[in-house]
């Protein structure tokens, strides 16, 4: 079985969903350290002139770098109204806005407490919209206490996976020999960002997956996967 794993991100980019699509099972790394100014609480959407960040404000904690499952949203700010307004204003004229707008309007009308709950709900829902049907697990289900490469090895063994699909960035930090020693094949994601029609020109890559969805609807998975 081929598995992949990643931290739950907010409105992830295309490559995140390509990795889920290429794997047979996907594990949310819900026991990892929160990355400040990373993609766990923000992502980019296309605008008429360029792009903007949509950032979910989070509460400061006594711990400088808490576990992502311990990060709470700062609901004293009207971030959800701002995000929905930004999405509405920048995508209301896109070809498939009506197909998904109800879901996002409802999502942003709710009060979310933990960042991880918001992110996982978004990712699972977008999987359904795209037509990606894969088994999803939480790392915390397996009570793994190791770190770095050994953490990934332990996750693979818990799921009896013989292949681990890593993002291309994994080449910089994964200890490849450990996979060989444990009879697990390590492969790296081969993702070429597609160029597709956006509402505005020129084409800008590395936007949130919603940019593709609002512009191409049911063809999004074909574009994403290159099939």
Write a structural description:
The structure is a single chain. By secondary structure, the chain is α/β, with parallel strands linked by helices. 35% of the residues lie in helices and 14% in strands. The strands form two sheets. It has a five-stranded parallel β-sheet, with helices on both faces. Strand 6, helix 6 and strand 7 (185-188) form a beta-alpha-beta unit. It is globular, with a radius of gyration of 18 Å. It starts with a strand and ends with a helix. 29% of the residues are buried.
Q: In a few lines, what is going on in this structure?
A:
The chain is of the alpha/beta class and 227 residues long. The protein is 35% helix and 14% strand.
Describe the SSE topology.
Layout: E1 2-6, H1 14-22, E2 25-28, E3 42-46, E4 51-55, H2 79-91, H3 97-107, H4 115-130, E5 135-138, H5 148-158, E6 163-166, H6 176-181, E7 185-188, H7 209-216, H8 220-225
Parallel strand pairs: 1-2, 1-6, 2-5, 6-7
Antiparallel strand pairs: 3-4
Number of domains: 1
Structural category:
alpha/beta
**Share in helix:** 25-40%
Largest sheet: 5 strands, parallel
What are its keywords?
alpha/beta, 227 residues, two-stranded antiparallel sheet, 8 helices, 5-stranded parallel sheet, 7 strands
């Amino acid at each position: 079985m081929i598995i992949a794993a990643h931290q739950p991100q907010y409105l992830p980019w295309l490559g995140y969903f390509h990795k889920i699509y290429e794997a047979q099972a996907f594990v949310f790394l819900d026991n990892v350290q929160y990355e400040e100014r990373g993609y766990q609480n923000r992502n980019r959407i296309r605008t008429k002139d360029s792009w903007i960040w949509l950032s979910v404000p989070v509460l400061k904690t006594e711990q400088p770098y808490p576990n992502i499952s311990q990060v709470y949203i700062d609901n004293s700010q009207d971030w959800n109204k701002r995000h929905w307004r930004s999405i509405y204003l920048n995508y209301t004229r896109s070809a498939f806005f009506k197909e998904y707008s109800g879901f996002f309007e409802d999502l942003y009308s709710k009060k979310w407490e933990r960042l991880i709950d918001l992110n996982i709900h978004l990712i699972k829902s977008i999987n359904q919209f795209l037509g990606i049907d894969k088994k999803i697990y939480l790392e915390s289900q397996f009570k793994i206490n190791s770190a770095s490469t050994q953490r990934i090895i332990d996750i693979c063994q818990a799921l009896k996976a013989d292949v681990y699909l890593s993002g291309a960035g994994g080449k910089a930090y994964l200890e490849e020999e450990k996979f060989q020693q444990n009879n697990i094949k390590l492969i790296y994601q081969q993702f070429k960002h597609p160029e597709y029609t956006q509402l505005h020109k020129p084409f800008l890559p590395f936007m949130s997956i919603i940019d593709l969805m609002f512009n191409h609807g049911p063809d999004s998975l074909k574009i994403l996967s290159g099939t």
